């Protein structure tokens, strides 16, 4: 992996070999989730599937919630680019919300696991939760062409919208594809109410 995200983890910068180990662990975590669900996921089971010593795995991930949150962070950072500047303001926001909501679409039990994991109290999860929130806030502010540091109430409303939508999908009430379209429709309502 060569992206900047693959060269870092929650806890430290990674060498190329360490980045490969983390990639094997995050890939194995998705495999374990799809086979055994979040309840069957442990750092030890993931380490075994990845061919990594459990002690090594724990140097990178403090808990299964940390591991799942890292999977989500990596997919989000690699799968949600800045919106296409040639699009209208509403279409840029729609593009960001679609991309955010579809990051775990079709990934079996990953979406539900991400919902549970991000609500955890592990300090490493908290760090990732802040990183994830800041990343999405930045993408939305850029799409709206507002100050990233002080984006204002429209971005706040859009953040509440996507967070609620992703929790709703993570609970299994809607698919991520259905959630994506509802998020876009609701965002268009919010944006159409703006002067």
TrEMBL record:
Q: Which residues bind DNA?
A: 42-61
Q: Which PROSITE patterns match?
A: HTH_TETR_1 (PS01081), HTH_TETR_2 (PS50977)
Read off the InterPro entries from this record: DNA-bd_HTH_TetR-type_CS, Homeodomain-like_sf, HTH-type_TetR-like_transc_reg, HTH_TetR
The secretion signal range is none
Is DNA-binding tagged as a keyword?
Answer: yes
Keywords in alphabetical order, please: DNA-binding, Transcription, Transcription regulation
Q: What single Pfam family name could you report for this chain, choosing any that match?
A: TetR_N
Gene3D superfamilies (UniProt xref):
Tetracycline Repressor, domain 2
Residue ranges occupied by any HTH tetR-type domain in the UniProt entry: 19-79
Q: Which PANTHER family match?
A: HTH-TYPE TRANSCRIPTIONAL REGULATOR BETI, HTH-TYPE TRANSCRIPTIONAL REGULATOR RUTR
- The identity of this protein, by name, is TetR family transcriptional regulator
């Amino acid at each position: 992996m060569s992206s900047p995200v693959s060269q870092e983890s929650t806890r430290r910068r990674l060498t190329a070999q360490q980045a490969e180990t983390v990639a094997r662990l995050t890939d194995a975590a998705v495999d374990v989730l799809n086979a055994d669900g979040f309840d069957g996921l442990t750092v030890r089971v993931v380490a075994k599937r990845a061919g990594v010593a459990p002690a090594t795995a724990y140097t990178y991930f403090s808990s299964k919630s940390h591991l799942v949150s890292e999977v989500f962070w990596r997919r989000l950072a690699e799968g949600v680019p800045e919106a296409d500047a040639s699009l209208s303001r509403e279409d840029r926001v729609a593009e960001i919300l679609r991309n955010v909501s579809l990051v775990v679409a079709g990934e079996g039990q990953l979406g539900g696991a991400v919902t549970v994991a991000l609500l955890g109290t592990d300090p490493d999860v908290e760090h990732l939760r802040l990183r994830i929130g800041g990343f999405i806030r930045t993408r939305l502010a850029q799409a709206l062409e507002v100050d990233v540091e002080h984006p204002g109430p429209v971005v706040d409303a859009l953040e509440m919208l996507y967070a609620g939508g992703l929790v709703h999908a993570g609970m299994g009430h809607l698919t991520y594809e259905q959630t994506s379209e509802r998020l876009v429709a609701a965002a268009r309502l919010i944006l159409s109410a703006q002067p």
